[in-house]
Specification:
The complex is a heterodimer of chains A (278) and B (267). In chain A, 39% of the residues lie in helices and 24% in strands. Chain A is α/β, with parallel strands linked by helices. Chain B folds into two domains: 4-94 and 175-266, P-loop containing nucleotide triphosphate hydrolases (Rossmann fold); 103-173, no CATH class. Chain B is built from ten helices and ten strands. Chain B has helices at 55-62, 85-92, 112-122, 128-141, 158-170, 188-205, 216-222, 240-245, 250-257, 262-266, and strands spanning 4-19, 25-40, 44-48, 70-75, 78-79, 95-98, 176-180, 208-213, 225-230, 233-239. In chain B, a hairpin with a 2-residue loop joins strand 4 (70-75) and strand 5. Chain B is globular. Chain B starts with a strand and ends with a helix. Classes of the chains: A alpha/beta (278), B alpha/beta (267). The A-B interface holds A 41-42, 154, 183-188, 191, 210-217, 240-241, 250-251, 254-260, 264-267 and B 50-51, 187-193, 195-196, 214-218, 220-221, 240, 244, 254-267.
Chain lengths: 278, 267
Amino acid sequence: MTELLRIEGLTVTPANAPEKLLVNNVSFTLEAGKTTCVVGESGSGKSLTALSVMGLLSSQLKLAQGRVIFQGQDLTGLGNEAMRQIRGQRIGMIFQEPMTSLNPVLTVGKQIGETLIVHQGLKGQALKAKVAALLEQVGIPAGRANSYPDELSGGQRQRVMIAMSIACEPAMLIADEPTTALDVTVQAQILKLLDELKTRMNMAMLFITHDFGVVADIADDVVVMFRGEIVESGPVASVLQHPQHPYTRALLDCVPDADGKKPLKPIDYAWLNEGVAA
Amino acid sequence: MSDVILSGRNLSKFYKQRSGKLGLGTTLVKALDDVSVDLREGTTLAVVGESGSGKSTLARCLLQLLPLDGGEVIFQGENLAALSGAALRAQRRYLQMVFQDPFASLNPRMRIGEIVGEGLLIHQLGDAEERRERVLRMLKRVGLVETDMTKYPHEFSGGQRQRIGIARALVLEPKVVVCDEPVSALDVSIQAQILLLLKELQREMALSYLFISHDLRVVRHIADEVAVMHCGKLIEQGDVERIYDAPGEEYTRNLLQSIPGRRALAA
């Protein structure tokens, strides 16, 4: 058990409204070789938590409190230049929409190569060979390095994003809803790929999702967020099978099951407000 | 078994796609390739498939929102594909649609009362007072209140907007409603609310749903029958239990096995 990332008391507010707690006192840790899923509805603060870790909060938001300790170093005090050294090199990132995250006028090989040029100073044949190796690692023929993003399918684009994110062999990978825009069969392939890479490279993975099905497939640990706060966290089996918090139970109840045996139950927020207060 | 209310027979729809050098050549994409499908009265037929499988094209062709290249659509004893102008418009009252994106499918410059009442106005149903009455009754039924009638779409959340979209479709008391991915843009808790609302309304108003979705978990809950599409062809159609428990095609089996958390959550 190697602790890789420790988030302590993370609090995010709008820059002009410090009383509004968008992320409220969030703490959890990530271990090497393990996947932690942060689950919640829109507005629960799950993406803001991930952005805070990467130091990518918009200028209209403020990290009001808390520390993000990555490999023993507090990231919250670092300047832009120092953070740039860490992002892409020691922390990889994948986002939801692969088409909007890729540059449409550059070949995918060029875009994967950018990371390697910036962080590792590779060039010429060595660069080409490394790009080819990365593409093969994510299951794309190396010849595709000369393709433009629009020539690839959604799943292939997400594989390119993954190749970029693991190019410098980061210790941690942050994935924000990486399969939400994909077809279900492609989603299954991408989840399998991420899981294999995590194990092979012994990465810690911070995986943001709203889908409990995805959580069940990929998570080792789960953090459930509601209105900016963590309501429950723990190993995946215990959270999914014996949820303790009423919100976790309610959220699980409104996920349709594939066997159609469980009746659908929408979340009763009024009841929940009382339940949380009690 | 109940009667067939909407029937598509040997439907074909082709798109031309530019290809080759400088896009000078064209290739024919078969979006619908000889598809026949039956929707039974008072039931829900779900059309499932991956992106590009032709499921949305099928929905649009059945409603004549897209012209067919071949085949016929039988609704209330008439071939919709042969109708045009006023005759088609008269039938459209009974064929309504709920769209995927509740943000893009409501006119941002119209008030909710106008949006929901527009269909009544176009079909000239009732006088102004009756129309107002029907719009209000429908809005209340989907969970909105009277003061919402004078508001604009941007004042509502995604789930509420989808309720408005449902009210707009149902105020005309249609017989068939095509729902094109009606819950895929919504949070899972809101999704459950909307699915339950659709089910209740189906019972109350004897509606038949054609439900387009890529989410096989949602389909399991809402559908009576399932049609599986792949590359413009309908490869399998049957009762939802039969398809999920004993899929006849390798493709369907693969699709079902890809449902996230299938094993883990079932336990």
